[in-house]
TrEMBL record:
CDD domains: cupin_YML079wp. It comes from the Bacteria. It comes from Hymenobacter jeollabukensis. Residues 5-138 form the DUF985 domain. This is Cupin domain-containing protein. Pfam families: Cupin_5 (PF06172). InterPro entries: Cupin_DUF985, RmlC-like_jellyroll, RmlC_Cupin_sf, YML079W-like.
Amino acid sequence: MSAPDIIRDLQLAPHPEGGYYRETYRSAQALTNSAGQPRSVSTAIYYLLENADKSHLHRIKSDELWFFHQGQPLEIIVLRDNQAQRIVLGLDVAAGEVPQAVVPAGAWFGARLRHGAGFALVSCTVAPGFDFADFELAERTALTREFPQLQELIEQFTMA
């Protein structure tokens, strides 16, 4: 299948951070967050990147688990503790790829195809559940002030 076929068949829509997604699960069970607001215990999405698409640097207030399904390896960049961590999501475990990865709550992160061509279909699960109220898209200048040694990487993963 091609990326357009998957986008059509899974009914994916453009995501504000880049790529395509569709929410597939939102727990009916809720909890109360620190602000006293109800929050689903867990949520899940399909997420697809193709060719030069990127998940631009962003952060959320919950842990996010990524699961690889098919396509090309996906490079996830995580900025925290004053450094960048690179995780390659894929199925070639012998080459250092992992089929599942965790991005900790509050970390800045983004993703792109490792080799820049083809597509990757993944799923992401967020716990406590995702809410756009917790979503923060990185602003290049502010993030460069926070991580000056990572300026080149930040420029690659932020919108101009």
